[in-house]
Structures are given as structure tokens and as C-alpha cells.
Amino acid sequence: MVAQATRIEPSAEPGMALSISAVSHAFDLEGGTLPVLKDVDLEVEAGSFVAILGPSGCGKSTLLRLIAGLEQPLVGKIHADGVPITGPDPSRVVVFQDPTLYPWRTVERNVALGLEAQGLLKTRRHRIGAALRLVGLEEFASAYPHQLSGGMAQRAALARALVNDPRLLILDEPLGKLDQLTRMAMQSEIVSLWRNAGFTSLMVTHDVEEALLMAERVVVMSPRPASIVEIIDVDLPYPRHRADPKLAELRHRALELLGLGAEL
Amino acid sequence: MTVAINESASGELPFQALARTRTGRPSIRWGAMVPPTAWAAFAAVTAYWPQVQDWPRTNELAGIAVAIAVVLAVAAVLNGHLGAFGARLRHWEPWFTVLAVLASVWEIVTAKLGWLPAPFFMPPQAILEVYLDEGDKLLECIVYSALLLAKGVVIGASVGFVAGVALGWSPRISYWGHPILRVIGPLPATAWLPFAFFVFPTSSSASVFLIALAAGIPVTILTWSGISSVSSAYYDIARTLGASRSFLVLKVAIPAAMPHVFVGLFMGLAASFAVLVVAEMMGVKAGLGWYLQWAQGWGAYANMYAALFVLALVCASLVALLFKVRDHFLAWQKGLLRW
Questions:
Q1: Taking a contact as any Cβ pair under 8 Å apart, which residues of chain A between 110 and 129 contact chain B?
Q2: What's the average model confidence in pLDDT over A109-117?
Q3: Is the pLDDT confidence value at A13 over 80?
Q4: How many angstroms separate the CA atoms of A126 and A112, rounded?
Q5: Which of A121, B7, B99, B312 has the greatest CB tally within 10 Å of its CB?
Q6: Looking at chain B, which residue has its C-alpha nearest residue A143?
């Protein structure tokens, strides 16, 4: 990784390494099961940024729920730093597509949620202000979620995740509902947060350009039941430029893998 | 500009202060003199129009009307200096006028012309007489009713809230609780009256049970539906952030369900009023319900109207109080909903 002279919050532990081996998963439906994941094998290095790209509804988000520990895979194992994942843990924090802030809490108290749940509010209260500053929401600390714009709400959700010093940040299409400009701004914000803090990032998206722009490796998945088609290494230094011809090349390759080749 | 600053300090909004510095000095709005005039007219009608029969306390009634007229007139003159209170007075001006007109009409058709005959229709001074002569007895009834209601509602709402949370949270409790609630819920609490007065040792404990039942069932059902309709995304968020089960119940499910809980509380409170009055009429020998029954039994219609007024005031105040409590707890909904 790049030199970390500008690291804002030196975290004691580096990013988390993930090992996903032979994971298959299915949903129970009335009158049978719906397979969503098939034989997924993936190694995620500590501190890396991996994007998972696939057609919508392919099962990418299910994979993230398994990694978050919200559900258990039917087949296969997922290890975090060599330890099997059996349930949710604040070292692996999810930012969902919908910010899902609690409407009855102010922005500040939403961000405090993790610390409060873990009983760390007293010792780490100062982190709340730091997290809000990090996402540029310090002036909205006492606002209620319905007073925020979509982009601000998603920033608040990001702060709520970051305040826990996650070792793995799981991003489930976090920018999917934002307008183009906010989206582009937040893409670079998330990348710089990741580069400064040293956690591992795992992001699901169906936006090819977003995946290539942000991640070091892009995992291309097939339609449901999802399996890995190919892993694209994006060997480009940060900060990246949208107009980089190499990105265009990779974009072409990724679209081909998704079955959307040269037509149009 | 110093004027404006001083005005803001005295609690006036800046734009009001600005408006006033522009016009130079506050002027009296002549429209504000309509309510005091109407009350003065009511006082004059009461005091000087000859009556069909002699009613005591007529002069006291006229005196009260004069007092109201004076207070309203003073308020109209000082309105600019009264800040938020003045704004509220201005808001209610049409009502003050209409009340004076209605009181005058009432006075005229009963005491003055006798179109509506006593004892079924009583003039305002007869009701004033009840408050002046039997005030302490009525007060005793209010205190008794309030205590009974408070016991019943507090017990009912607390039990209902806990039961609702348990039913909404635990599938096993819901399995056993749901059919019971389905059968008992629709039964009006007053249907339990014979049973309650038979089973409980005292009529007041029976009444507490009935009021608690009336208040508790809507709270149970609404809390339950509130807890079960909490979005699973709220739980996912909290779980990934390390929340324990008790955190999920206390800090996620319950706050998310509070809007429902308050709907249940409003329904329960309304139901408890009905049961309170019926219970006091049927078994308890005190309270406003009993007073109503007693007054009607003796043909003391003025007393009955007086008690009805008080009852309406008490119920309305309790509902207003619950609104205040809700506004405090659900302040976050402001801007989300139309209140």
C-alpha cells in the first residue's frame, strides 16, 4: 500500500484478512429453495480494497451478509483472520445501500450507536465528534435524520461505521441511491478514508466504473446463483482519474465478462 | 436598532420588533376590543334585564363577566408587550367573542325569557351557584375520580406495554398470547362489571381492575403491532455494531414502536374515561360519575350540568397532558408528520 503519512486515526490493528472457501447458499422459498451463491472461493488480503461486481439480484449482497455474520452459509466456511465467522462483530461493520439511520436519534446519537451497544460510550465518546468531522457532518450533530439529504444521511451511516474502528468495512452498494455528483464525491472520500485508516474494504456494486475506480481488485460475478467469473487486478496508483485510458480498457473487459460486450 | 435588541431580549421575535420600530409605536387594534365588549354586554344583560323568576348568584355572574371583560380589555391594550402570550390571546379572540354571545343567548332564553324552562334547563347563574356552594364537594369528587383513574390507567398501561413488548418480541409468548387477546380484546371492559364487583373485595379495587383493563388492552395491541412492525434493517444495523439482545429490545424495538404505543395510550385513555364513569355510577359511592348519578336522582339538574362541565374539563386536560408527553417523547417526528 501507499505510504500512510496522513493517517488520521492510527488504529492498533491493521485490516482484517478474509478467506471464503467453497461457500454456497440458498434461500428457502415456498415450494423449494432458491440457490443464490455457488462455490464461491475468495481470499481478501488484509488492508486491501476489493469490489464485488455483478448483475443486480445475483447474490452479492447475500455474500456480504454472510461475511457480516448476519447469516450462516449453508455450505462452506468463511474465516476472518483464520477464525470462523459465527455471528456479527463490531470489527466487521456494514454500510448498507439504505443509510437506515434511526429516525428517533439525532445524527450524533446515531453515530454513537456502536459505542453504546458495546458499552464503550464513556471511554470513547470523543470518537463521535472525530467521526462526524471525518465525514463533514460536525455541524449536523444534533439534526434528526429526516433533516438530512441522501448524501448526508449516507455520510452519517459511514461515520456510524467508522466510529467503531472496523478492521473490515463492508459496503453494500453504499452509493447506489445517490445522485451522480454526490456519488462521485463520495467515491473519492471513501477511497481516501480507506487509504488513511488501513482497514480492509469490501464493496458490492453493480457500477463497473465505480468498482474499477475505487478497488484494487474487482471480483466479477455471474448471474444467480452467483459464482466468481474472474478477478480483475486494477494495477493503478491512487488517486485515479476517471479518464485514464487503462480504466477504459478494464471497463471494456469487465463489461465483456458481464455479458455486455461491444454492442451499443 | 437598540430598540430592536431590547425587544428581542424581552422575548419578542425580531421581525415583530422590526415591524414595530417601523410604525413608531404600538397601536391598539380595534378588533381586539370586540371580545371585552361582548363580555361587558353579557354582564349588562345578566345584571339589568329583569328575570322570569329570581335566581340567586345573578350579580356574582355579572361580576365575573365584568372581570373577564376587564382582563380582556387590559390584554388588548398591552398586547404588544405580552410576547408569545399576546399572540395566543390574539389567536383565540374570535372564540372569546363567540363564548360571550353564547352565554348571553343561554342567559336570555333561560333566566330572562323562560323559553327553556327550569328545572331541566338551568341558567348559567344556577351552575355558578353549584360551584360556589358545593365547590368543595365537587373537588372531593374530582380528587377521588382522578386517583381511581390514575391507578387504573398506570397499572393498565404499564402491564399493557410490557405485555405488548413481550408479544411482539417473542414468538412463543405470541403463540399463547395471541388467541387469548383475540378473544378478550373486543369485549368491552364494562362487560366485566358484574364479574369484577363480585370477585374483588372492594368496589374501588374492582373499578381499578376495570379501568386497567380498558386502558391496557389497546396499549397491549398497539405496542405489540408497533414492535412487530419494526424494520429488520434496524436490527441488522445494531447487530453488526455489537448489540446484545437487551439492547435490541430496549434501544431499537421500543423506541421504534413508540409512535404506535402512543396511539394505544390515547385509545386506552379514552376507554378508561367511559369505564370510570360507569364504574362510579354502578358501584363506587364517590367520584364525578357517582355525583352525576346522584344529582340526576335528586333532580338537581344544575348540579348535573356543573359536574358534566367539570368532567369534560378533566378529561380534556388529561388528553392535553398526554399530547404534551407525546410531543416530548416523539419530538423527532416533528417535520416527518403533520401534527
A1: 113-114, 116-118
A2: 94
A3: no
A4: 10
A5: B7
A6: B332
